[in-house]
């Protein structure tokens, strides 16, 4: 049963890997289902790297996801700390709004954001990282609030008695203790931003600024899908994700189950 | 818990700004759009205009020429009655000129002024028509066009109130999209729950290689949906796709091409791709819930002589209920909002048979640049999402916010 499950999960990737080395004629030819390519070729990889600029897309994705991760982690850490440690009016309202934002359809923000970006002249730029907050921030805040709640207050109180300010307490005591949670949030935020599609395809329509999901979706035309190139590009763009998953699977699973939020 | 002072308040300023500008403001704005006939490709509708507006500059120029052209023909007009009505048109236009003497550019006008301008236009239109029929006018061709410009100087409000909603509720595209969305959501979430629960139970049994399985399970979750969709569109392809070939070999399909070229086939394909992508995620969420169930409960039940089926229904399911409901809530919302998978895999086709609400609203907004109507569809989605959340939160018993 487990073997069967693993085969189903892994099979598509294996097949894509095989296809990426097949010559175009062989992909469409008489025997498209052979497991071993007759004449293995690296041509598709060369094509997507040289002609289709897949490396630029990966670069764009790294920039966009990296910037999003950095500012979301900072903003969410501050907010989650305040929510976890202080009493203020409208706290439940803030938490409710954060939860609601994680629930509403992304389509609802896209029209106004598009018009705003047109007015500001921000289309086709890296400003797109700002509206990414709408899909990443709620999850980050929820995971971090859970983490902060688990850190005993006594530690902070003694720091405060020793004369530390709120910011110092956060920076010197709480932050190191919450580091695993912050790290988890960073990884999940990065992957969410890496996978984002609607905002990227709408706002950064110029191929100079295409991110990975958008660039890949443009490898097909209406009449013909370049399967060989699609396969090679899929393999290339999956590598960064694979590395992250392999290195940090424990943190990712912790984050997913604690936040319990979103795919 | 301490009271928040001003300095601590600064901690939440950034999140308030970000959520305010990039989440709440757009929602309110979309809500506003939905009451307007707001279309970017139509110059007179490319903004939100609550009032009638009047292009004073255009009107002044127009009235000047109409006045001049009619005056030129005054001698040609022989009948006294016609002369009088021509003079009336000129007077009317001059009156309006005086009224807007101190204005320029585009201004908002009152409904009285609107009626006045409309009356002037209608009178001018009718008179010019009669004159052209009876006499040989010098500007016979240009005059009607100029008169038309009087009307064009007035820009109608594109506020339509609830008209958009009325239209949407009768629009078969919207109703079809809603139906496709519900079918997709129900089928994929149900499959994911059953498969994910089974998977989680197996993984919970302390088998070897658990870490490896967990890692492998994360891969589909971490792959961009658009990439996964394109990958599956290759596997589903009628002539080169291995999955389509397998399906037809085991008798699920008559022809491999049926999968993507029939409505039912494409919907099934989309559902299966979604199940592939998110079942492992569901399994991981449920596994966390399973691990929180104390094993002493199972020991106690085995002493009482319960079998595994009884264990499952009497212990596992009741204790897992909160985890299941949270996982279901988020999976249902995700499936209901589905966009990239379907947009890349089928594009909503064939023949709109896989068009979901997200895909339809996106096409209306960015394909037809009709933001007003697209926002109406989005607001309908919003209401559905609110209903789904309410139902789940009710079932969850406690407030979902307390689960931490």
UniProtKB/TrEMBL annotation, chain B:
It is found in: Cell membrane. It is a multi-pass membrane protein. PROSITE patterns: ABC_TM1. Residues 178-392 form the ABC transmembrane type-1 domain. Residues 83-141 form a coiled coil. Pfam families: BPD_transp_1 (PF00528). Its main location: membrane. The chain crosses the membrane at residues 9-28, 182-203, 215-235, 371-393. Keywords: Cell membrane, Coiled coil, Membrane, Transmembrane, Transmembrane helix, Transport. Belongs to the binding-protein-dependent transport system permease family. This is ABC transporter permease subunit.
């Amino acid at each position: 049963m487990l073997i069967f499950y693993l085969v189903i999960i892994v099979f598509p990737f294996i097949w894509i890997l095989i296809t990426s080395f097949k010559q175009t004629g062989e992909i469409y030819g008489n025997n498209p289902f052979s497991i071993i390519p007759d004449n293995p070729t690296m041509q598709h990889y060369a094509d997507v790297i040289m002609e289709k600029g897949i490396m630029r897309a990966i670069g764009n994705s790294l920039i966009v996801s990296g910037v999003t991760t950095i500012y979301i982690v900072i903003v969410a850490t501050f907010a989650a700390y305040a929510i976890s440690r202080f009493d203020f009016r409208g706290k439940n309202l803030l938490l409710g709004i954060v939860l609601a934002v994680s629930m509403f359809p992304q389509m609802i923000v896209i029209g106004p954001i598009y018009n705003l970006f047109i007015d500001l002249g921000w289309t086709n730029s890296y400003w797109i990282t700002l509206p990414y907050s709408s899909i990443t921030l709620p999850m980050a805040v929820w995971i971090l609030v859970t983490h902060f709640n688990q850190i005993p207050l006594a530690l902070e109180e003694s720091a405060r008695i020793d004369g530390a300010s709120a910011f110092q307490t956060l920076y010197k005591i709480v932050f190191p203790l919450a580091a695993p949670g912050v790290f988890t949030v960073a990884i999940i935020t990065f992957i969410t931003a890496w996978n984002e599609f609607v905002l990227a395809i709408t706002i950064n329509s110029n191929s100079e600024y295409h991110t990975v999901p958008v660039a890949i979706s443009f490898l097909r035309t209406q009449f013909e899908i370049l399967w060989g190139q699609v396969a090679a590009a899929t393999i290339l763009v999956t590598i960064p994700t694979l590395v992250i998953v392999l290195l940090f699977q424990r943190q990712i699973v912790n984050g997913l189950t604690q936040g319990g939020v979103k795919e | 818990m301490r009271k928040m002072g001003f300095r601590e308040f600064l901690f939440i300023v950034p999140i308030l700004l970000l959520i305010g500008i990039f989440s709440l403001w757009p929602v309110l704005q979309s809500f506003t759009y939905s009451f307007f006939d707001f279309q970017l490709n139509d110059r007179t509708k490319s903004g939100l205009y609550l009032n009638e507006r009047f292009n004073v500059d255009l009107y002044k120029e127009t009235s000047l020429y109409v006045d001049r052209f009619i005056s030129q023909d005054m001698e040609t007009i022989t009948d006294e009655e016609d002369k009088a009505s021509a003079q009336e048109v000129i007077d009317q236009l001059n009156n309006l000129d005086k009224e807007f003497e101190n204005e320029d550019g585009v201004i908002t006008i009152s409904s009285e002024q609107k009626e006045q301008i409309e009356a002037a236009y209608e009178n001018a239109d009718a008179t010019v028509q009669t004159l052209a029929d009876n006499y040989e006018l010098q500007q016979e061709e240009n005059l009607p066009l100029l008169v038309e410009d009087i009307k064009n100087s007035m820009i109608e409000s594109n506020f339509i109130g609830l008209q958009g909603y009325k239209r949407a509720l009768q629009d078969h595209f919207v109703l079809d999209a809603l139906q496709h969305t519900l079918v997709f959501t129900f089928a994929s979430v149900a499959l994911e729950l059953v498969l994910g629960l089974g998977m989680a139970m197996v993984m919970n049994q302390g088998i070897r290689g658990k870490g490896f399985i967990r890692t492998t399970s994360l891969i589909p979750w971490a792959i961009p949906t658009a990439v996964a969709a394109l990958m599956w569109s290759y596997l589903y392809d009628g002539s080169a796709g291995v999955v389509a070939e397998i399906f037809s070999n085991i008798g699920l399909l008559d022809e491999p091409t049926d999968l993507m070229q029939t409505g039912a086939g494409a919907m099934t394909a989309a559902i299966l791709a979604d199940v592939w992508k998110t079942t492992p995620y569901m399994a991981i969420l449920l596994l966390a819930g399973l691990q929180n169930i104390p094993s002493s409960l199972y020991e106690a039940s085995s002493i009482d002589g319960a079998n595994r089926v009884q264990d499952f229904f009497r212990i596992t399911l009741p204790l897992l209920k909160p985890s299941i409901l949270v996982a279901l809530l988020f999976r249902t919302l995700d499936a209901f909002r589905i966009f990239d998978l379907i947009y890349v895999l089928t594009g909503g086709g064939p023949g709109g048979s896989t068009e979901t609400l997200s895909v339809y609203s996106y096409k209306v907004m960015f394909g037809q640049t009709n933001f007003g109507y697209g926002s109406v569809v989005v607001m309908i989605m919003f209401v559905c999402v609110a209903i789904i959340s309410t139902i789940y939160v009710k079932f969850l018993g406690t407030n979902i916010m307390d689960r931490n």
